[in-house]
Amino acid sequence: MTKKLDGKKIEEARRQKTQSKRNEFEKQQIRDAFEANKTQKRVVIIPPKPITEVDDVRKTRVCAYCRVSTAEENQAGSFEIQCQHFKQYIENNPMWDFAGIFSDEGISGTSVEKRKGFQKMIEAAKNHDVDMILTKSISRFGRNIVDILTNLRLLSDLNPPVSVHFETEGIGTTDGKDSLIIMILSALAQLESQQKSEAIKAGIRYRMQEGIYKFSVINTLGYYRDHFGKIKIDDAEADIVRFIYDSFIEGASLEQIAEALAEERIKTPKELYKWRTGTIRNILSNEKYCGDALMQKTYTKNFLTHKSVKNRNFLPMYFTENHHDAIISREKWNRTQELLQSYNERRRLSNKVPLKIVPKRVIATKSKNGVIQGFFLLNASWTKSERAEFLKILRSLNNIENER
Q1: Domain assignment of residue 67, yes or no
Q2: pTM of structure
Q3: Nearest-CA neighbor of 369 among 239, 299, 280, 271?
């Protein structure tokens, strides 16, 4: 009987032979095509028509995005240089139409949420008002790798796509070979931002530890910083603080105190007329009113979101007794803290306690920041007697300053 065939071996050999023939056939076809084109010149190259006038084609609408992370003086100069540079650069190109400057000054690049200029630029691109975006560097475009890549992909997916060019790196999204470089540099921009954030926080904690940190008093009722950075008592606002403490000690509820202040049209620390019980509670529990300072009660958990959270034994706190002049005496402060602990029980009895009226006097607000820092804000609705009382307050303040 004839010997059995090794079917597996035979089919494998046939497959390899067939594949080898196919590969050789394809190679020979390519060789023949090149040879035929060389001898017969079957492919005719048609060059593009020369453009005689710029107006023969639609110009590219080009905008620029500029950003600096702080509003300091040196950063303000850098910001203006960016804007003027790109405006001139775009206008000097005869093939481009200037589509505007989108900017964010004094805004961190770690999140898109607060960058209104960036958001407007993306909307302009979606509305097909922009064909190309210029920016100084990837770090100016953003410092969050997710935001950067998400927005670059969004712009690339538009029809027609909107390209982004980074001047410092000399790369852009029009060249697919630059994609990996952009991804790596975006990650480095985020890492740099994280390192800066950690360095800043370490510096703040060191100053807290050494007792030289200057905490903000912008939203602290009754205090302001003078031009030398020293904490001073604002006598007009201090009366509001004393009223809140005295009313609470005498038995008034947080709701009653809030209603009384609202009825008198006295503004909150954030310049609102509606007082919340939480605001009253914060004032009553704020150690700064008895002259002490407890620092790092909150901390920034995520450098990308900049969201502050309460420090619940996660980081050390720094306490300084008699740090500045007190508005509330130590005895009254301690009594208030005792009452706050038993507030829920006292709340049931609070309706039986009459609330004293806010003293009728002029409440003059002093600006705590900006170019008008240290100036008083006048109220146009003041009567003649109220204006006279305000001038009296100013004279008393000037006398105190002169004595010091």
Answers
A1: yes
A2: 0.52
A3: 271
Q: What angle (nearest 5°) sits at the alpha carbon of residue 142, between those of residues 141 and 145?
A: 125
Q: Is 242 in contact with 363 (CB distance < 8 Å)?
A: no
Token pair in block for residue 186: 């975006």
* Total number of domains constituting the chain: 2
| CATH classification of the domain holding 99 | 3.40.50.1390
Say whether 60 sits in a helix, a strand or coil: strand
Supply the pLDDT for residue 324. 87
Residue 333 in contact with residue 290, Cβ under 8 Å? Answer: yes
| CB half-sphere exposure, 235, CA atoms < 13 A | 12
Residue 281 and residue 399 in one domain: yes
Q: Which residues contact 36 (CB under 8 A, 6 or more apart)?
A: 42
In a domain, 10, yes or no: no
Please write the tens of the pLDDT for every residue from 134-151: 999 988 888 888 888 889
CA gap 216, 123 in Å, rounded: 36
Domain that holds residue 227: 223-291+326-403
Residue 331, token pair as written in the block: 């005895």
